[in-house]
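Run log, item B.
One chain of 115 residues. Sequence copied directly from the ordering sheet:
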Amino acid sequence: MSEDGVTDTAPYERLAELAERELALVTAFEPSRIGELVALQQTRTTLVTSLPEQPPASARGALLRAHEAQQRTTAALTVLCDQLGHELGDVDRGRQAARSYAAVPPPRPVLDATG
């Protein structure tokens, strides 16, 4: 514990909490909450830049939690990206099909012998 009453592991615990929160947001993905993910990532980046180059040995547990959550987040994002890629492919195929209908010229009127 430092002189101000804050443990040396507090920032590492916060890092693990942020990683776990990110995992929760990604696995329950809702497009309307992307802003939360961006803010969380900015908070994490700021926290990481404030950490000493060498963490204390007592931070090992928190760092392992953060690492595990980050691995699971990466896996979940991979699945999400694959799903979104398939959905975008479906949209593209739908657009191509719609264009092919639009490209068919309208039938020409046929005149019969009476007219």
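Observations after the first pass:
- The chain has one domain: 10-94.
- The mean pLDDT is 85.
Flagged for discussion on Thursday.
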